[in-house]
C-alpha cells in the first residue's frame, strides 16, 4: 500500500495527480485544508477519519469553505501557469465536494472559465470531473449535471454493510442515495470492495441496485492507499474480476476493475 502524500490536498489546487482512472488530473479541493468535511466516514478513506461528519446545513454553515471567487482565481492561475497537458479538472479533495454550499455556482463558473480558456488557446475543452459520495445529489444536482463526468460512490446496497463500511452521518439514507442516483444522467458508479462487502448476498443486492440505476459504466477497486482503519486489507485482484464478470453477465454494463 502506498504511503506517499502526493494526492493530499494542501490548498484549493493540488496535483496534477497521475490517476489510474483519470490520467493527468488537476485536483480541486472545495473543503477547508487540514479539516476533512464529509457526510460519510469510510473505513478505507485515504484521508483518515472524518473531522466534521455531517450533512446538516446549520453545521455546514459553520465550516470555513473557500469562497467562489477564491476557487475560480486559483483554477485560473494554474491554467495559465501549468506546462503539463491536463486530462481533466477534478473536484474531489479533503472530503465531499458537493457539501460546499455554492457547489453549483462553482461548477458553473469553472465551466465558463474552462470554455474561455479553451477558446483563447485553441485547445479542446478539458473535461470537468466530479467525484462524489452520492449523499447530497438533491442539493448539488445542477452542478453535477453541468460536469462532464460524474463519478458517484456506491459501495454497498444493504443497510448494515453500508453503515459498517461508509459510516453515514445522521440524515444520510441509503434509500435516498439509490433513489437519487437513478435520477442522474450518464453517471459512472465507483465501488470499493473489501472483505466487508463481498458476501454473495451483498454482491447480489449491489448488482440489483446497479441494474436499476443504469450507469454508463462501473469502476471497481480495492485498497491502494493507507486506509483510516489500519486493519483493512486489499482484496486479491481475482475477486474484483469475479465481481466484474457477475455484474456484466447480469446487466451488460461495462465494468473496469482497477
Ligand atoms: S466519501 Fe470519500 S472523502 Fe468521504 S470518508 Fe468516504 S472516501 Fe473519505
Short description:
36% of the residues lie in helices and 19% in strands. With 258 residues, it is α/β, with parallel strands linked by helices. The strands form 2 sheets. The protein has an 8-stranded mixed sheet. Strands 3-4 form a two-stranded parallel sheet.
Order of helices and strands: EEEEHHEHEHEHHEHEHE
CATH level-3 fold name: TIM Barrel
Number of helices: 8
The top-level CATH class is Alpha Beta
Helix content: 25-40%
How would you portray this structure in words?
The protein has 258 residues and is an alpha/beta fold. It has a single domain (13-257), classed as TIM Barrel (Alpha-Beta Barrel), CATH 3.20.20. The protein is 36% helix and 19% strand. It has eight helices and ten strands. The strands form two sheets. It has an eight-stranded mixed beta sheet. A two-stranded parallel ribbon has the order 3-4. Helix 3 packs parallel to helix 4 (137-146) and helix 7 crosses helix 8 (237-251). The two termini are 14 Å apart. Iron/sulfur cluster is lined by residues 38, 40-42, 45, 47, 50, 95-96, 133.
List the helices and strands and how they pair.
Blueprint: E1 13-19, E2 23-29, E3 37-38, E4 52-53, H1 57-61, H2 68-81, E5 88-92, H3 103-121, E6 128-132, H4 137-146, E7 149-153, H5 159-166, H6 174-181, E8 187-192, H7 200-213, E9 217-221, H8 237-251, E10 254-257
Parallel strand pairs: 2-5, 3-4, 5-6, 6-7, 7-8, 8-9, 9-10
Antiparallel strand pairs: 1-2
Helix pairs in contact: 2-3, 3-4, 7-8
Bound molecules: iron/sulfur cluster.
Iron/sulfur cluster binds at residues 38, 40-42, 45, 47, 50, 95-96, 133.
